[in-house]
Structure prediction request, 157 residues.
Amino acid sequence: MAAAVSEWTIIGTNSGNPAGQGLNVPVNAGTAGEVRHECLMWLDATAKIPTNNFDFPITGDFTVVLNGTLNEITADAGNVDVDVEGSLDGTNYIKLQDLVTWNAGGGAQAETVAMGVYDYDSNGRFPFMRLALTPGSDANCTDAANHVKLTVILHNG
Prediction:
């Protein structure tokens, strides 16, 4: 099985595919230089799956796009609870915001895209921050090809 999550990658254009990242999430014409941060996640089992800590500064609101490239999910992942978590020490995390509940689809159901916006003014920032996804059902994504892409777009650059 592949790792549960990949490292965060910074993507500034739509040209090319960084190694292991697959297709980029397209952006509108005229914004090809929009910087975004992406990682891959495999929805295996029903336990919480955290990303690596953000390796980019959070200084304002940000949008999270879930499976924007509509990658195939092996089986129905059910409702996926998506949270933003923070920590002072990188070990003990608390939920900062319940970002969205995503009906991911998969298997016989069509895969879906979801998004949520983190409210910086209401929830602040911590030295360590990450996303945490908890699938409602086991999508059994144990194959390297069966991942979803998580994309973070910072509103302030």
